[in-house]
Amino acid sequence: MTQQHKKGEISKQFNTYIGDGMFSKRIMKEQRIKDVVEVLVIHTNEQNWKLIQKKKIAVQRNGTPDAHYMAFYRTHRRDKDGKKLRQAITHISEVLSTETNVPVSETLKGVPELKEWYKETKRDLRGRHKRYNLGKLIKLEREIPFIKGGKPIGQVKFKTKMSELLRAKTISDLKRLKDL
């Protein structure tokens, strides 16, 4: 709407302030620093991990904040022999862009394991969510495990800083933005 009246200084300031906040796709490098979380840590089970590996995308609810980086707290892991592995943050990736209101059915194309899991857990295949388009997945030099008896996370996602993530020895050591 403001494109028609872009001669005025007020319109230019408005467009600069709003940025691309009205669009459903956001390029992270183009966002104002204060509007974007540095690192978003999300829980991911093995079915969602397959989606992340195959398509280089992660999904969350539409209201989840944008982030420069996403760290993956992997749960329900098993080794090649089927033995349970400890829950841990294992990988990180740069977020290239985000898109809101993406149909779940579009995201699930090409990942039959995840589609089956959605059906088994009675999730809405006609729903919509936020999609994070990721860069290269980088395996952390050392995993950040959850140690029983430590401070529980109690959240499906939380925000932190890169310095906190790299400093933590266990998940209980991680400080969230609200704690900093």
Query: Approximately what portion of the residues adopt beta-strand conformation?
Result: 25-35%
The best one-word shape is: globular
Low-confidence stretches: 19-23
What structural category do the secondary elements indicate? Answer: alpha+beta
- SS field, number of helical segments: 5
Question: N- to C-terminal separation?
Answer: 40 Å
From N to C, what is the helix and strand string?
HEEHEEEHHEEH
**Nearest-integer average pLDDT:** 81
Q: What is the alpha-carbon Rg in Å? A: 18 Å
Helix content: 10-25%
The counted number of beta strands is 7
Largest sheet properties? 7 strands, mixed
What can you tell me about this protein's structure?
It is a single chain. This protein is α+β, with helices and mostly antiparallel strands. Helices cover 22% and strands 34% of the residues. The chain has helices spanning 9-18, 46-55, 104-108, 112-120, 162-167; strands at residues 25-27, 37-44, 57-60, 67-74, 88-103, 128-145, 157-160. Strands 1, 2, 3, 4, 5, 6 and 7 form a 7-stranded mixed β-sheet that branches. It is globular, with a radius of gyration of 18 Å.
